[in-house]
Amino acid sequence: MTTSATFQQHVLPTYGRFPLVAVRGEGCRLWDDAHRCYLDFCTGIAVCSLGHCHPRLVAALREQAGILIHVSNLYQIPQQAALAREINEEHVRLPGKVFFGNSGAEANDGLIKAARRFGHRRPQPDGTPRFEVLTFQQSFHGRTLGAMAATGQTKIQEGFDPLLPGFRYLPFNDPAALENAARPDTAAVLLEPVQGEGGVNVATPEFLRAVAAFCHAHDLLLFFDEVQAGFGRCGEAMAWRAIAPEIQPDGLAWAKGMGGGVPIGAFWLSDRSIDAAGTALSSLLGPGSHGSTYGGNPLVCAASLAVLEEIRGQDLAANARRQEARIRQTIGSWQLPVVTGVRGLGLLLGIGLDPTRIPTPEGKTPALVVVNRLMENGLLVPPAGPNTIRLLPPLNVTDAEIDEALVMVHDVLSTF
Ligand SMILES: *Cc1c(COP(=O)(O)O)cnc(C)c1O
């Protein structure tokens, strides 16, 4: 039986999968079951930040697998402590504390729970807890009941109502829409500094600053979902720092690139005090309030630590900035009518496509038509919404690999 036939019989059909059967990877390259080699600029959707099977990540996994794979969070886990310190001291560089889970959606659920605890601790004047979290249109925060309700896209939520209550979706990058947005029960704002799934939309510095001022004015927590954008992807350790570095968020969510391919997610809460008694925000989730059986186990933490040390040690954020400039320069020089623009930051980039120039058979989106053509030519990229393709190469991608990919992109886009 072929892999796709076995899939059809035994796996829930939640993904519209391409026929490609992936069997092996190395760096930027991925091989299928017919030994065809692709240049992989999808990287598991911004997950394999060091490329496939990076020797440092493989060595960390092999070594830790032979020592201790899993132990309960009932005990002290040295790799988890070391990873939290690396994150706090070298990447966030603000006083705070980390909770480890297994995915981006779970990380956002953790932030939503923190917002509700905060809303109990700092209720409305009559003592009613606050609970509402403001998010933004076109956002993507994940697929759990909590993260799905936070997501500002009806197509993600279709048929799953009643949704978890307590969310409202504001227009992205529109400071004026914040004006009367706070209600008595509002407790927090959650946003992606660079929207990924929603089509690669970068928050403007003015907008991020307006959101921060809005949170300050209404005693709301400010959360950044950096699940896709964090840890070097956008050309800085944290994406918000590439936009408005002076902002000090109250909470952060991560997953994807932090593990380089091992399933790990995390959220962070600031140590800042939230009342006159000096209560730290990070103290609101005390013993028994939250947990995860797998979260932060020795194996994934050893792997993630190797990834983050490599990103920092090789200054891969700087490579992301440099390659962004090269990509923008090259695509700009083409002057292709089908390209409406390049959006994004660092190596979270979207190429906007003019849908009127791309024939779309079988109800496919223009982006999917282009993604399929690129795959035929040997380049893997994911779409981002109907009219954008994304470039998500590993953070250690070389000049030669970028140039090779751009030749394929040009070959395909110049036919429209
Ligand atoms: C992918 C993504 C998520 C969800 O992460 P999962 O690991 O799939 O749960 C949440 N937020 C953003 C910004 C993402 O890109």
Describe the structure.
The protein is an alpha/beta fold and about 425 residues long. The protein folds into 2 domains: about 5-55 and about 315-415, Aspartate Aminotransferase, domain 1; about 60-315, Aspartate Aminotransferase, domain 2, CATH 3.40.640. It has 12 helices and 16 strands. The protein has a 7-stranded mixed beta sheet with strand order 4-12-11-10-7-5-6, with helices on both faces. A 4-stranded mixed beta sheet has the order 1-2-3-15. Strands 13-14-16 form a 3-stranded antiparallel beta sheet. A hairpin with a 2-residue loop joins strand 1 and strand 2 (about 30). It is globular, with a radius of gyration of 21 Å. The two termini are about 40 Å apart. The mean pLDDT is about 100. The site of pyridoxal-5'-phosphate (PLP) has 16 residues, from helix 5.
Write the SSE topology.
Layout: H1 3-10, E1 22-26, E2 29-32, E3 37-40, H2 43-46, H3 55-65, H4 78-92, E4 96-101, H5 104-121, E5 132-136, H6 145-150, H7 154-157, E6 167-170, E7 186-191, E8 194-195, E9 201-202, H8 205-218, E10 221-225, E11 251-254, E12 265-270, H9 298-313, H10 316-334, E13 339-345, E14 348-353, H11 366-377, E15 379-380, E16 388-391, H12 399-413
Parallel strand pairs: 3-15, 5-6, 5-7, 7-10, 10-11
Antiparallel strand pairs: 1-2, 2-3, 4-12, 8-9, 11-12, 13-14, 14-16
Helix pairs in contact: 3-9, 4-9, 10-12, 11-12
This protein binds pyridoxal-5'-phosphate.
